[in-house]
Amino acid sequence: MIYPSLLERLKNQHTAITPIIAKLNERQLHYRLEAGKWSIHDNITHLAKYQPIFLERINTILTTDEPSFGRYKAEEDNSFNIWREFSTGKLIEKLAAGREAIFERITALSETELNRTGNHPLFGKLTVIEWTEFFVLHEAHHLFTIFKLAHDNR
User: By the 8 A CB rule, do 131 and 57 touch?
Assistant: First the structure.
């Protein structure tokens, strides 16, 4: 069973981005605090770009017995730089649409499907519910990073 806190975060957590960045201009959205580190825009790109990958992984878990996945690394994803070229507003639209698809997919699954497993390279065998928890926790990490960058006074 999908527990209420997971369901709520899966449905709405991503919507925190808009109020966090509402007062920022383009320069601030693309500013890199340190060379080689991601900007707010890059973090949003990553969140939006990872959603179809997450959905693909869930679909693989549902159709393959205990598949194994490598870590997703944006720097190894050729299309990540293409997504970086989208405006921040467009990325937020893509994030919302992708989240709706994920939410619909996950909430339509049976208990048996929610308990199917796939192997994560660091955390081992995870059920679909655990993969979903990992997904929202990973997103929360990036939301915190976005918040910190939006409020850095340097």
Answer: yes
Q: Where are the alpha helices (DSSP H) in 24-127?
A: 26-30, 40-63, 80-84, 88-107, 111-114
Report the candidate in 46, 32, 38 with the shortest Cα–Cα distance to residue 80. 46
Domain ranges for the chain, please list them. Answer: 4-17+39-150
Half-sphere exposure of 81 (CA within 13 A, CB side): 4
Angle made by CA atoms 54, 84, 25, in degrees to the nearest 5: 120
> What does the block give as tokens for 104?
């619909």
Render pLDDT for 104-152 as a digit per residue (tens, 0 to 9): 999 999 999 999 999 999 999 999 999 999 999 999 999 999 999 999 8
Q: Which residue has the tokens 């910190």?
A: 148
Alpha carbon distance 124, 78 (integer Å): 27
CATH value of 4-17+39-150 in 2.170.120.12, 3.60.10.10, 3.90.1580.10, 1.20.120.450: 1.20.120.450
pLDDT tens digit sequence for 122-133: 999 999 999 999
